Amino acid sequence: MATKVKSAFVCNDCGADYTKWQGQCTECHAWNTLSEIRLGSPARGGKTLRSGFAGAVDSAVKTLADIALDEVPRISTGTGELDLVLGGGLVPGSCVLLGGEPGAGKSTVLLQTLCKLAENHSALYVTGEESPQQIAMRANRLGLPTNKLEVMAETSVETVCAIAEQKRPKILVVDSIQVMHMEEVASAPGSVSQVRESAAMLVRFAKQSGTVLILVGHVTKDGSLAGPKVLEHMIDCSLMLEGSSDNHFRTLRSHKNRFGAVNELGVFAMTDKGLREVPNPSAIFLQRAEEISSGSVVMIIWEGTRPLLVELQALVDDSHLGNPRRVTVGLDQNRLSMLLAVLHRHGGISVGDQDVFVNVVGGVKVLETSADLALILAVISSFRDKTLPQDLVVFGEVGLAGEIRPVANGQERLREAAKHGFTRAIVPAGNVPKQPIKGMQVIGVRKVTEALDAASC
Ligand code: TYD
Ligand code: MG
């Protein structure tokens, strides 16, 4: 019987797949974006279950306890912040996706890391965007060791896999996945089907050979990786390098990690000598003005496995618009609207006729709710034009009933603040430590009104 070649239809914009062609993608609602891709031929064999697999079942199915655990040593990248985000280093046979906007510094951070790693581990850097000369020039300019790292300019995945098969590097970097292509896929490089098939082949090679695969991926304007859905389930660890061009700090965050904590944050600074790691990020985000103005407060957020002290600023000003503005940078705008409603209902303070702007200093994006209390105090401080004490730190979640809810890792947050010289903290009552923290006066609060009293606002 002739084997039927299976095909699927994939949306070039969002990566959703369908068994039949249709004019509009039901996921992203784009028109005419579906293209056909051929799937690999079905597995051959055709043994009946009863006869063919009877013996195989015993060897294939095991309890977890029977599986031998080989402790695979992680490969340290030599950069503390990168190791931290990876959860302790690179795991052999794992696939890491490094995403970021063009110009974020993905190629730079990989070149710096790989040049040093190549001293002890064989490494191959496949470049599809820059020429080997450009890479060599950059490595020389940055003063990196250049005699060990092997570089190849190639965009064909088949060739990359064939060469990697012979050379067997321990670490393989492909910069970037969007320029890679496979002969047997008909669509253009960068399309979802090319990205998906190319990544699948590279990942297969990495898993079979135990190579660490690092894929570079460009993000689109809205911050998602091109073809995000198709890549995310294949890889083990997805890192995102973020930062704006007007700011020389770059943050590296893990969005998915099968071998460590997610949302771990590493901080780098882009200098004329490449990317430098910033081992104590709280110190840089806390460079406050000599004279503190109203609307500024320091909050303690939790990033992955460590606390981070960041300044939050609010500006509340008379609005001339019928619909006053609610603008946030680094925070969720809906959260701001919600907290302003709580403040009105349970704190008796209305800012309905005011524009409210909130900014997290240093370009940090805050994803957790422990910033709620800081946000409320910053808004009130600006509204009343009353400065909050310079040595005050704040954290805590605010509920819709105006209650202040405890957050995780309260002790560690307070200890970090004490390390940086803060002496007063307003925190949820549930987070007040049983043992006092040296040099720190901790005020526990249960309601928004109590928090306002504690901050004398
Ligand atoms: P690059 O690593 O090429 O970005 P990506 O691979 O993510 O597209 O980084 C390029 C940017 O970094 C560019 O805007 C210049 C800046 N840069 C420096 O400021 N200093 C340096 O030493 C290097 C190498 C780059
Ligand atoms: Mg690049």
UniProtKB/TrEMBL annotation:
HAMAP family in alphabetical order: RadA_bact (MF_01498)
CDD domains: RadA_SMS_N (cd01121)
Stretches the record annotates as Lon-protease-like: 355-457
Organism: gamma proteobacterium HTCC2207
Biological role stated in the UniProt entry: DNA-dependent ATPase involved in processing of recombination intermediates, plays a role in repairing DNA breaks. Stimulates the branch migration of RecA-mediated strand transfer reactions, allowing the 3' invading strand to extend heteroduplex DNA faster. Binds ssDNA in the presence of ADP but not other nucleotides, has ATPase activity that is stimulated by ssDNA and various branched DNA structures, but inhibited by SSB. Does not have RecA's homology-searching function. Plays a role in repairing double-strand DNA breaks, probably involving stabilizing or processing branched DNA or blocked replication forks.
InterPro entries for the chain: AAA+_ATPase, DNA_repair_RadA, P-loop_NTPase, RecA_ATP-bd, Ribosomal_Su5_D2-typ_SF, Ribsml_uS5_D2-typ_fold_subgr, Rubredoxin_2
Family stated for the protein in its record: Belongs to the RecA family. RadA subfamily.
Protein name: DNA repair protein RadA
Entry text on domains: The middle region has homology to RecA with ATPase motifs including the RadA KNRFG motif, while the C-terminus is homologous to Lon protease.
UniProt keyword Zinc present: yes
Alphabetical list of NCBIfam families matching this protein: sms (TIGR00416)
Matches recorded under Pfam families: AAA_25, ChlI, Zn_ribbon_LapB
GO MF entries: ATP binding; ATP-dependent DNA damage sensor activity; damaged DNA binding; hydrolase activity; zinc ion binding
Residues annotated to bind ATP: 100-107
Keywords: ATP-binding, DNA damage, DNA repair, DNA-binding, Hydrolase, Metal-binding, Nucleotide-binding, Stress response, Zinc, Zinc-finger
Motif RadA KNRFG motif in this chain: 256-260
